[in-house]
Amino acid sequence: xxxxxxxxxxxxxxEFTMSRADFDRARRLIHRHAGISLAEGKEAMVYxxxxxxxxxxxxxxxxxxxxxxxxxxxxxxxxxxxELQEFVNCLTTNLTSFFREEHHFPLLAxxxxxxxxxxxxxxxxxLWCSAASTGEEPYSLAMTVVETLGGAARVEIMASDIDxxxxxxxxxxxxxxxxRGLDEQRLRRFFQRGTGANQGxxxxxxxxxRLVRFMPFNLVNGDWAKLxxxxxxxxxxxxMIYFDATTQRAVLQRMHGVLKPGGxxxxxxxxxxxxxxxxxxxxxxxxYERV
Length: 291
Known about the structure:
The chain contains 10 helices and 12 strands. By secondary structure, the protein is an alpha/beta fold. The protein folds into 2 domains: 5-91, Chemotaxis receptor methyltransferase CheR, N-terminal domain (Chemotaxis Receptor Methyltransferase Cher, domain 1); 104-290, Vaccinia Virus protein VP39 (Rossmann fold, 3-Layer(aba) Sandwich), CATH 3.40.50. The strands form 3 sheets. It has a 7-stranded mixed sheet. Strand 11 and strand 12 (287-290) form a beta hairpin. It is globular and about 60 Å long. The N and C termini lie far apart (55 Å).
């Protein structure tokens, strides 16, 4: 029986078709290696994003590309890891802006002041932005730190993402001067405006950039020991919505393990972890405290 075709399109002289088996195979691969659960109805998204990779690798269709990827992964090695990373980069979603879900930042500022006032507070406060995307979120954290504690604050911000392409953008720290979420006051204080060929662009100032360290990290299959000392605060916003319940639970347990007692977990507006009360209790609007 012929496998039904879900999508077909012409790209130059090459026609790609994606069958139900191809779509399901891609879903299994991204779930196994990144924890992402692709729902029914995402066929066009998968097609559009992976078609670019087919062209880059000169594969004639989805089936031979996915077969090649699985064979490479079975054999192992650096080349396989690089191609897996490209595959993951294609299928991750990156939607972000400066000071997104802005109600979190006054809460973070209050928490930073409270931690700075603790008796014997001498160790750096550690924050982890676990889905840094193109950098707007970790730099928003850094700007909040400077506004709250000053430029010499002893704060470390770890910023990670599974997508290495967006991390490269984040490390450059260059954005449109009219980027969403940036007001004129913060733009003047925290960014250097471009001139000439860079007119309309702005680069994060060193006093902000110095607070942030970027690294690739897979929340599902990563080596959590590499994260270092426990964190005071974790931002993991609008990430768990892409995981199934089992994966969510596993990630929450790992985050509980790398948060200090009383540490805070900031999540997205549509995420609710009331079924993990033994790990986290609700502290404020979409802010949880480690139990």
